[in-house]
Amino acid sequence: MDHDAEFSDYAAARWRALVRTGVLLGCEPGEAEDLAQQTLLRCYLKWGHVIRAGDREAYVARLQLNLLRQSRRRRWWGERTAAEPPDHTTPDDTGLIDDADAVRRALARLPAAQRHTVVLRHYLHLSEVQIAAATGVAPGTVKSRLSRALAALAVDPDLAELRPEGRP
């Protein structure tokens, strides 16, 4: 199989996961799509490196994290104008918490390094060694970040309704 066809198959298979990962890392949906496109472009340009990487998923996760960090350093993330102001005061008519939204809000409150670790571990299912390779830290640091993040998520009020009965 030639490199273009192999890359096309990889890109088609990974697109949705790359976009979801971007959202879980704190991007708005449109920004997550841009990040996924940039990640796939970088993968295409370095496809030889990607296919020779010992762990393709960790390599691509590192590319995506690096691109996110670069974009956050370059851009201003203050106020943004909108045609309509967001409606944060109207509660959901059903009274139920949207699970995905609650998880995103809880993840957004974590420090970036902890959020990245949780997403790579529990969404992408990377091992601690793979996460260490993707983030450029020691496996012990991955363990401590994950432990602190999970402790914070365990008491997050937005996730209270998602906990099993009888658990704090």
Describe this entry's structure for a reader.
This protein is mostly helical and 168 residues long. It is 65% helix and 0% strand. It has eight helices and no strands. The longest helix is centred in the N-terminal third of the chain and has 22 residues, at 3-24. The chain is globular and about 50 Å long. It starts with a helix and ends in a 14-residue tail after the last helix.
* Classification by helices and strands: mainly alpha
What composes the largest sheet?
A: none
- Report low-confidence residues grouped into runs of 5 or more: 93-97
Proportion of strand residues: under 5%
User: Can you give the helix content as a percent range?
Assistant: 55-70%
Mean pLDDT over the residues:
85
The SSE string, one letter per element, is HHHHHHHH
Total strands: the figure is: 0
User: What spatial form do the alpha-carbon principal axes imply?
Assistant: globular
Please tell me how large the radius of gyration is: 18 Å
Terminal residue distance: 53 Å
Alpha plus pi helix count = 8
